[in-house]
Structures are given as structure tokens and as C-alpha cells.
Amino acid sequence: MCRNYFYLFIIFSLFSRQTACAFEIDSVAYQLNPKDLIIPAGLLTIGTVASLTEHYDILNFSRPEKNPASTPFDDVFQYAPMSSLFLFDALGKEKHHPVDQFFVMALSYGITIVPVKLIKDNYTVLRPNGEPGSFPSGHTAAAFVGAHVIYKEFKDSNTLIAFSGYGMAGVVAASRIIHNRHWVSDVFAAAGIAMLSTELAYLIYFPVRNLVTGKMSQLFGKEIAITPVIHSETLGFHLNIRF
Hints:
By secondary structure, the chain is mainly α.
């Protein structure tokens, strides 16, 4: 029996050590550029003003007499910019870590759907096909969230990638109009809401992220000592953390 305790003591001692943990995550500085708000604010203003007029269509579009039974392309392709972001990370030099991109994307989308849902429920605008809930376009808003994150991540390193997201989002917006689901004003306003929400998400995320990672670095950056304790009938350890 004593021999067994001896072996346990040797094994346990091999894993016990006193060390200063090197866990530390650098903070990320972020500053809002007011110029980045001009275009999305303009899109939102144009779309809102146009929706208040008698003619929802800012431009003249020929619309099909019959509506498609479903719009699977719109339903899937609205997420193309979001999913493309992480592919572009392998092709270009992104501004922030992919983990930060994931969280800021999720926050951007979460902030976007709140005003879109509230406006749809409380501001009655009929779609071109006569159905309710036209203003603003939810599909377009989702697409422009991903597009604007791509732009912000790659605008300083790869112009082609930075603007590619807007191309994909523009295809979604055009498809919603062509499929008789939305007016032009709907997609203009949705794009503006999504881009402004993304700017707000960046402004919120990084201060919170820096606060959380700073606290984690303080917690795990302490000297930790683990000492095995073995008696005839007891096996355990002492844990000491130096603050």
C-alpha cells in the first residue's frame, strides 16, 4: 500500500509546479470615423423619405405580373457576404482577428434586426405584390451587415475585397425588387440601417472586449502553486494563487 502511495506521489509531483501564467490578450483600439456615417445615413434618409411619398419606387422598374412561388436564391444569398468574410481572411490582410470578426458580425446582425422588426411591425407599407411588411427589406439588411463588415476589415489592405461585399448585397437588393417583394425605398433604407448598425456594433464591441480580456489577463496572470498532499488515508492538493 505504501508503495502505491509513493508512486502516486511521484506522478502527482510531476504535474505540480509553480509558474507565472503567460495568459495575456492585447487590447484593440478602435475609433469611429464620422465620414463612415455619411453614406448609410444618406441611404436611410432617401429610403425613408421615398416611402412617405405616394410613389414608393424611386426608379421605374418593370415588375412581373406574377410573383414567384418562392425566392430560394434571396433566402440563401442574403448570407453570402457574412460567410465570405472568413474566406477573404485567407486571401487578404484583415484588420482584426477572425474571432473578433465573428463577434462583431453577430452583434451587428443583432442590432440590425431590432429596428427592422420594429419598423416592419409598426409602419405599414404594402409590398408591390400587395402583402404587408414591405419597409424595410430584411433580406437586404442581412446582406449589407456582412458587406459593411467586409468593407471595414479590408478597406485599408485590399480594395477589391473591401467592395466585393457590397456587390453581393446589391445582388440581393436587386433580386428582392425583381421578385416583386420590395420597393426601391425598402432596400435603400435597409442598407442604411444595416451599415449604421454595424458602425454601432464596432463602437460597442471593442471597449467591452478590451474590458473582458483585461480582467481575464489579470485573473490568469497570477503565480499559481499546486502542492500535492498525500497521507495514509488522504490524497489531494493545495492550490495557492498569489495576487
